[in-house]
Design a protein that fits this description.
Elements lengths: L1 H17 L34 H4 L4 E7 L6 E8 L4 E9 L5 E10 L5 E4 L8 E5 L2 E4 L16 E3 L1
Antiparallel strand pairs: 1-2, 2-3, 3-4, 4-5, 5-6, 6-7, 7-8
């Protein structure tokens, strides 16, 4: 008899501990008075993140690297960007000539603030993506160059 009472007590405790209590919470919402329509100004423009390469990175300085060349060993390239939106490009065609070609001019930022366009360049790509201590040469359409040699188009500070 004690065993039956003990078993019944254990089953009761087990069932009672598995019972889930549900609680009801009542939330009251205060009413808000209507707003006059002439006090609301609609702005249909999206709020964009104001951080970009132009205003968030220390982009001014000299960037160097050797970019691929169709008829030489490579083009040893140095681009210096100045705070006054001017640039200097120095290029040496390796295995072809010892002369260093130099061009000066101004550059402008695209609307994203992450790409510069070198104005007045002759016979070379003019768009570069500005990254953290890097300039990445872009193709004619302004897109990143892909493929096996894509890392060769990155100039480093």
């Amino acid at each position: 008899m004690k065993k039956q009472i003990l078993a019944l007590a254990l089953v009761s405790v087990a069932l009672w501990s598995c019972n889930v209590d549900t609680k009801t919470v009542t939330v009251s919402i205060d009413t808000v008075s209507p707003i006059e329509s002439d006090t609301i100004q609609e702005d249909s423009t999206l709020i964009a993140d104001d951080h970009n390469a132009q205003n968030s990175l220390d982009w001014a300085g000299s960037y160097k690297g050797t970019t691929p060349c169709a008829d030489c060993e490579g083009i040893e390239t140095e681009i210096t960007l100045n705070n006054d939106a001017t640039y200097i490009i120095k290029a040496k065609y390796l295995g072809k000539d010892t002369k260093v070609f130099q061009e000066n001019g101004s550059f402008s930022w695209d609307k994203t603030g992450s790409v510069i366009v070198l104005n007045d360049v002759k016979d070379r790509h003019s768009k570069f993506f500005v990254g953290e201590n890097t300039l990445t040469q872009l193709d004619i359409d302004g897109k990143k160059i892909t493929g096996a040699l894509s890392d060769k188009y990155v100039l480093k500070k």
